[in-house]
Every structure is written in C-alpha cells, then in structure tokens.
Specification:
Blueprint (H helix, E strand, L loop, with lengths): L6 H7 L1 E3 L7 E5 L7 H8 L4 E5 L1 H12 L6 H8 L4 H6 L15 H15 L4 E6 L4 E7 L2 E8 L4 H11 L11 E9 L2 E12 L2 E10 H4 L10 H11 L4 E6 L6 H12 L6 E5 L10 E4 L8 H7 L7 E4 L5 H12 L3 E6 L4 H10 L4 H7 E13 L5 E3 L3 H7 L9 E3 L11 E12 L2 H8 L4 H8 L6 H11 L4 H7 L11
Parallel strand pairs: 2-3, 10-14, 10-15, 11-12, 11-13, 13-14
Antiparallel strand pairs: 1-2, 4-5, 4-9, 5-6, 7-8, 8-9, 15-18, 16-17
Length: 494
C-alpha cells in the first residue's frame, strides 16, 4: 500500500496526501479535479479523509512533502524511487554517451539529483571541482563548505556541458569564464540558480548559487537583531534622505538586510529603484535594473541617469569605486534616500574606505545617516548541543570576568545536523548612527578608533552583540571567535 501519490499527479490534479497525518488525510486544492479522487483511492488502497486547502497552502504542502522532487519530471521520478546521489553516480554507464537521450539521460538525472539534495540540505551553493584523479562536489551549508561526493573525473566534462546547456552558455568555449542562470520550480516556488564557470588546470569548475526569494524576504524582524538595534535601524531607514550603508564580508547577509529594508519602505507611495549586479531576487512593486558592463551600464553611469525617472529611494548593489560613491552621495544631497553595501570589516571602517577612495570628509559628514556592520554565526543544533565549562584561556578571549563559573554551550553532532553540531545561522550586528557628534568627527577627519569610541560608548559592537547569542546558548564561543574579532577597547577604555 502506497502512502503518497506522485508529484506530477498531485500538482496537476490538486490532490496530495498530508504526510504524517492520522487518520490518512488528503489535501484538496481549490478547484481540484474531484474525479481524480477515485484514482487516489486506487493508488493508496485505503480510505481517507479530505481537507480543503487554499492554493498557497497546497503549494507549501507540495514543497514540504515532496522536497526537491518538483524540479522536473525526471527529478520527481528519482524522488519516488528514493534514489540518493551515490545511486545516481553508480548508475552512470561506463562507455555510453552521458548526454545522449532525453530527460531520462543519466547525466540529466544526476544533475536533478544534485539540485534536489542541495535544496533539501538548505545549501546556498554547489561547487563542482575537477582535480587530477577525481571530481569533488561540495555544498556550502550555513557558510561552511562540506564535501558530499567524490566521483571519477571522466564525468566532469559531460556534467559541465549539461549545466552549460541548462544555463544557455557556450559549451564550446572552455578557455574563458562564463556566467549564466537557470530557473527552476520547487513545489510551485520559483528558484533561480546562478551559474559561474571557470577554467582550471584539470578542466572547468562550476559554482551554482541557489537563490530563493522566500529566504531573502524575511522582514527586518526576522533578521535576528536585538530590539534596541532593530528600533534604531528602522528609525534610520525611515529618514527621507541620506545614505544608509551595510558592510561586511561576502556571504554575511548584506543583500538580505537591504531587501528586508526595501520591503518595509515599499508602501506604494514612493518610487523605489535598485541597481544590481546581478539582480538576485525579484521584488514586487520595485523597479530593478541589472548592470551590464559590456555595454557600459555601470552603477555610476546608471545612477547618473536615474534621476530622470523620479526615484524617492535607490538601492545600489555595491559601492566599488570613487565614481559610484560620489554619485550616490550626490544623489542623497538632492533629498533622496540611497542604500548600498561596502566590503569592510566594521561600520567605522566604511568611513575610512570611502575616504581612501577620495571622497571629501564634508560630503561624508553631510550625507551619511547610518552604517550597519553584520556577520552571520552558525546556530547550535538544538537536538545535540551540550553544556561545557570554559577554561581560563577561553574566558579571557571572551572578555568574561576571571571568576566566571557558569557553563556555555558547545556543538556535539547528531543525525539531525549531519554531524556538524550546527543548523541555520544568526545575525550579529553593530549599528553606527551618524549623530551630530559623529558628523563633527568625520568632518575633522578623526581616526577610525576615535569614531568607534564615540559611536559605541553605549551601544554594542559586533563581538559584544554576538556574546548575547553565546550566553543564551544559541551559538558557541568558538563560532563567535571564528567570525568576529573582539574589539580592542570596551566602553571607552583601551
């Protein structure tokens, strides 16, 4: 007796078994094909209850119940057979053309299986690396790379060729890097996969970035900010003009923070435009322009022309050079709000970076409103985290009192977290508000240390903000120390 109908049937007919429900219950979407109920009864071989679902709720059920099986028909078939990645690799023929055939070709089923598995594991990236004697496949999960498979290097070329076909790249060009995109469907949820190829000594490596709009639009309240920082940041982005910067290394969640801020500002009464390279997620009601450097469509050039479209708020994907910085700051001087990102290690470091680009201090002082620095730390797995008494060295590194006698939480590793000890991530933030005192320091070209001292006299810097997660048991001390440097001074004393 089967416990579920197949994905294609559930999607087309609007009927699917609700997993784990007792007694057996079938969800029926609005406008479902009621004549198909007889087929459901035949497939399940048992009686069942019916439960009405809206279209949105039914799509969510498909996404959760079938995992990654909605990528396409062959992926759904693989999910029904419970094929894992090892099985898919073992099933590859030794001599047959791996690209031959239709959607059931072995290499096609392999790629579908990879995407299914990566999405199920919440991976943000898939790395396919050819080496001298093997092909390595790794996922980036919660910011850390994990090798999931090694295979014979002989499949590297057909695997890369198939990915190039999917992303409409030139399969004959193997000497130059290429960028492309693949659009997929996961239980009614749209997913984009950004593809980047790069020639290496043993063939082309491929990086696949999985973009999920649902993960990007979490809302400001879902970013993990403490209440005080959240209130101050909301007040800053509510300003009618000026520049708001979000800083941090690659992969620290800057784009997610900016998108969440834009979602709050998108009331329908203001004209919001974004300049991105490339556009990562689609935002309803917001005009998004992708940059194209081949035709001269750069951040600075587009920003100069954007005034004719009468925007109230502009988000520039990244300030990379002096020209973009100058145009963004001048844009803010016209009474509009500009949001952007800068790659620096701290919020005060963004001021130094802009000065180094050649931006005048008076322009920074008059336009900057707030600078948010952020990091992401891995969240301890709630199933297996354990208590541990820190030693004297760790207590000193954390800046805790020497007589600290409490215990902290550490990762252990279990089946739920696949032995890593962590699942998901949390945000760590420091918010520098440009008050009149800070404006004066910027105008006087004060050092980064002096600006930090004045800005964070009564507010958290990154490390101290992250310590709340350590004390509460949401992350480990080792993880915080790995991600954030401890500030050299604490509330005014070096």
């Amino acid at each position: 007796m089967r416990t579920q109908v197949n994905y294609a049937f559930a999607r087309d007919k609007g009927l699917a078994v609700i997993p784990g429900r007792t007694p057996l219950t079938v969800a029926m979407r609005e406008g479902a094909d009621v004549l198909a109920l007889a087929e459901v009864r035949r497939v399940l071989g048992a009686s069942f209850q019916l439960e009405a679902h809206t279209a949105i709720a039914f799509e969510r059920l498909l996404s959760e119940g079938f995992g990654g099986g909605a990528l396409d028909g062959t992926a759904a078939a693989a999910a029904e057979k419970q094929e894992n990645l090892e099985t898919l690799f073992d099933g590859l023929p030794q001599t047959e053309d791996l690209l031959a055939g239709d959607g059931d070709a072995p290499i096609v089923r392999l790629i579908n299986g990879l995407l299914q598995d990566a999405i199920k594991r919440r991976a943000s990236d898939i790395h396919i690396d050819p080496f001298e004697e093997k092909l390595s496949i790794r996922y980036r999960i919660d910011g850390e790379l994990q090798e999931v498979l090694t295979a014979s290097r002989r499949i590297a070329a057909p695997l890369v060729s198939r990915i190039k076909v999917m992303s409409r790249l030139d399969i004959s060009e193997k000497r130059m890097p290429q960028d492309g995109r693949v659009s997929l469907s996961l239980g009614g949820r749209a997913l984009d996969v950004r593809v980047a190829t790069l020639p290496t000594r043993y063939g082309e490596r491929v990086a696949l970035r999985i973009l999920d709009t649902r993960q990007a639009l979490v809302g400001l309240g879902g970013l993990g900010m403490d209440a005080a920082t959240l209130d101050r940041f909301r007040a800053a982005i509510a300003e009618p003009n000026g520049v708001i910067l979000v800083t941090g290394p690659t992969g620290s969640g800057k784009t997610t923070t900016l998108y969440s801020a834009l979602a709050m500002l998108n009331t329908g009464r203001v004209n919001i435009m974004t300049l991105e390279d490339p556009v990562e997620y689609g935002l309803d009601g917001i005009s998004q322009t992708p940059m194209d450097h081949k035709v001269g469509l750069t951040f600075a050039a587009t920003l100069r022309s954007i005034l004719r479209n009468d925007p109230n708020i502009v988000m520039v994907g990244e300030i990379r050079d002096a020209e973009t910085a100058e145009v963004a700051l001048e844009f803010a001087l016209t009474g509009r709000l500009a949001l952007s990102t800068v790659h620096t290690n701290s919020s005060a470091g963004a001021i130094t970076r802009l000065r180094d680009m050649g931006i005048e201090s008076f322009l920074l002082a008059s336009t900057l409103r707030a600078i948010l620095a952020q990091r992401l730390v891995r969240r301890l797995c709630p199933q297996c985290k354990t208590h541990s008494t820190p030693d004297a060295a760790l207590i000193g590194q954390l800046g805790l009192p020497a007589d600290f006698s409490g215990s902290l939480w550490r990762p252990a590793g279990c089946e739920a977290c696949r032995g890593t000890g962590y699942t998901g991530r949390l945000g760590v933030y420091e918010l520098l508000l440009v008050t009149p005192a800070i404006k004066r320091l910027i105008h006087e070209q004060a050092s980064e240390e002096l600006i930090e001292r004045a800005a964070f006299e009564s507010a958290d810097m990154l490390f101290s903000n992250g310590m709340r997660h350590v004390i509460s048991g949401e992350t480990s001390a080792e993880e915080l120390l790995h991600v954030c440097r401890r500030e050299a001074w604490s509330h005014g004393s070096l």
